[in-house]
Amino acid sequence: MIDHPCDSTTPGGVYLCQTDENLSCGACCGLYNVADPGFESLSALLRCRTELFLKTERNFDALVHFKEQVERMENQNRPYPEFHHCPYIGLVGSSLSRPGCLLHPLNPGNRSVDHRGLSDWGGLACATYFCPTCSTLPARYKRILRMCCDSWHLFGLIVPETAMLACFFQAIETLAGQILDPSVLSGHEPFKMAVRRFFALKTDWSYRPKGFNRLGNYFFNDNLYPRIPVNYRGFDCEPSGLDPILTALGSEFTDKSSLESAEQSLHDIITSAAFAMISP
Questions:
Q1: Which of 45, 113, 230, 249 is the most exposed, having the fewest neighbouring CB atoms within 10 Å of its CB?
Q2: Which stretches does DSSP call E strand in the chain?
Q3: Beta carbons within 8 Å of 28's beta carbon, 6+ residues apart
Q4: pLDDT tens across 56-112, in order?
């Protein structure tokens, strides 16, 4: 497996921010902190911004005006009201196929000028901050994440879910009785399909409360928006071994039977991945 050029300088040795032409993570920019974080709505929002930005002159006044226009046009209701959402995140790349910073010096219209000082966190934070997944998740798990995910929308939702990813991949390794090897699994389509089934649960999980809109993970350490724990005591049962996954997916269960059904659906995916991993 060939490493990404940025891997050698990224904490944890695997770069997750802008990985290829179609895959990037904008979670720390507040990408999913919008009224409707679904793929279609978010794609339309980013396209509209990008088109407006292409018509914007690259000077201080014009770029500030761009921000004001965006904030007037868009719904400002936020699932995480005290967390920012950067109005300068749009679509980047040669075919505008993934989210990224419109102010970045590599954005062609900026002619190598870095305008990120106008963003909420500034250029220094964008250049030096990495989410906990980068430094704490094993490199092999991050490489598999980068290898298996084929949707920027899911990628940005999955990357910050450090505990969920660790629980999932550890469960596969335990069941298979061997360590995941990205170089071996990179061409193993049945394994990648099983992992993608798991990733899809981030948007398709059927055990969420009605009106749930906090798809993104508020992964900062201020405990401002803690995850709702699963009520195991109410069902007179011990915490699930898959609790980090159940919690990250925003689970709410009406009875013990629904909890067991959810656990089984996760076990089915883990078993599929483990079996595919050890099959010729």
A1: 113
A2: 18-20, 23-24, 89-92, 98-101
A3: 129, 131, 160
A4: 999 999 999 999 999 999 999 999 999 989 999 999 999 999 999 999 999 989 999
